[in-house]
Amino acid sequence: xxxxxxxxxxxxxxxxxxxxxxxxxxxxxxxxxxxxxxxxxxxxxxxxxxxxxxxxxxxxxxxxxxxxxxxxxxxxxxxxxxxxxxxxxxxxxxxxxxxxxxxxxxxxxxxxxxxxxxxxxxxxxxxxxxxxxxxxxxxxxxxxxxxxxxxxxxxxxxxxxxxxxxxxxxxxxxxxxxxxxxxxxxxxxxxxxxxxxxxxxxxxxxxxxxxxxxxxxxxxxxxxxxxxxxxxxxxxxxxxxxxxxxxxxxxxxxxxxxxxxxxxxxxxxxxxxxxxxxxxxxxxxxxxxxxxxxxxxxxxxxxxxxxxxxxxxxxxxxxxxxxxxxxxxxxxxxxxxxxxxxxxxxxxxxxxxxxxxxxxxxxxxxxxxxxxxxxxxxxxxxxxxxxxxxxxxxxxxxxxxxxxxxxxxxxxxxxxxxxxxxxxxxxxxxxxxxxxxxxxxxxxxxxxxxxxxxxxxxxxxxxxxxxxxxxxxxxxxxxxxxxxxxxxxxxxxxxxxxxxxxxxxxxxxxxxxxxxxxxxxxxxxxxxxxxxxxxxxxxxxxxxxxxxxxxxxxxxxxxxxxxxxxxxxxxxxxxxxxxxxxxxxxxxxxxxxxxxxxxxxxxxxxxxxxxxxx
Length: 614
Prior knowledge:
mainly beta, 5-stranded mixed beta sheet
């Protein structure tokens, strides 16, 4: 039975079996079903054919079209009344079945071998295709391995995560536990390794806190001693003791360790005569240590206690914060990778970043002015500094990547480059205003890996919460509308939804899922037309305020949504992207404050636990 191609998706090849007229009851193991056994010779147009046992799978058999009618080259030899020596059909004798049975056996065997080869090839192609798809989804924002039935708990770890980094390295979840740093196998939840330090230590950057749905996998992790300082303590380099630092590999071994103090060499943009007062260092990306300090002496009003306004909840800050210096050191060599200076600029909301809160005097609330307050941290392929009068982002190579003229601008890794986000990162969670303090529209930009601008959007770029790793659409909010642009920056369409989408939940090459006007709508990625829409009530659960979607994930065919409800835990719902069918709903993990896709897996993260769902 030959294989006939059926219509299928572009990345799949499906075949069906079609009847070819052969007797399907033919028993190749029963000689009586094919006539007399033995070697049968015959004469074709070019002479004798090979004997039956000389023909194996894959051998071209002549005259297959004449098997049923014994015409062409299918007759017996001239003495048997089949064909004469010139190949002309003769009379069909009683032994004709004997001469054609071996050929029929050879034909069926050859066809069977072809089926096996094709099916084997199809299986191999499907396996390779599935591996490619899975690898692509593992790297995509919010990408998951194929989503099936409602997820169940595979394992759960009781871990206190409040205020500490949660790291992900190849195959392991990295958690800090006092003097120990522990790697847990992502598939089983078992402890894979444990590395013990002399003092309480934390490893990793704050990358996961700047990702709405995905955790970036880091090849290594920098480990530094934990500190608990209520007030910033900026001091010159000579007043610092060297800090023990280590670089942890994915198997828990130490790749490099060194004691490092603040850099002693000249810094870019800093007068050698000016003293830099350094703050506590933190882990940087890719085996580095990040130092942040204030350039020059303390500002006026530093350390003063000021009353908190009872009506506004703010404090009056009159002093000026000093500029900020950054220095990124390589742990393995101890060398300075790069340094930079960020000019300080005081803003109207300075009181929140320029004071230590929580005191009282004479029955009233007071705060302590801290103009030195600043903290540096690393995220995936980026370095950031925030604090009193300062907010800036840098590439891992030290190129400033945010727009200094936009207050709150932040740059995050995006694809192979960076996304410059003037919303300060809130756009990654589906929220943001559209205009800056002057009333001008906020404009995002995409940067190359070296920090150069590739494309400046006409408004606020809204990244999808989840993709299949193949969609190249860019979504931009401009005023009261949202538009889709292609990879070249050309506008393609505006959606035909009843209201302007407030979030792009999922973007694949087949559908774009958005939330708009209190419902979910799937748009055609080529035209923006609505293919289907569903209301929150179709998603199950109780108490949906507006069907708001907190997070979204996808395997390319299904959208997995995390929905806010009045219940004690968010609901999970799976929706078929092709037709909007709600495949299942399930109450989420009660302790969860967020879900993460980790190398294609779905993790629930809470203040006291981490759970793998599958």
